[in-house]
């Protein structure tokens, strides 16, 4: 398993917090991040490499209004 970090960002792009995701590959880690349906922007990192960027989940953003 490979250690990935999912970093949460506020609306200005500043770091809020991060969660660890253990997956076998980049596509698996991307799927795991999408499944979280986060209401904030986020970035998936593996060591010093940016793997993917995610916009806020529209489903949760609408529900919180």
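-> sequence recovered:
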């Amino acid at each position: 398993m490979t250690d990935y970090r999912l970093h949460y960002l506020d609306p200005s792009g500043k770091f809020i917090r991060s969660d660890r995701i253990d997956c076998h590959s980049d596509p698996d880690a991307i799927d795991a991040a999408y499944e979280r349906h986060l209401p904030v922007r986020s970035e998936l990192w593996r060591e010093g490499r940016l793997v993917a960027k995610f916009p806020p989940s529209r489903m949760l953003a609408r529900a919180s209004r």
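The longest strand covers residues 15-23.
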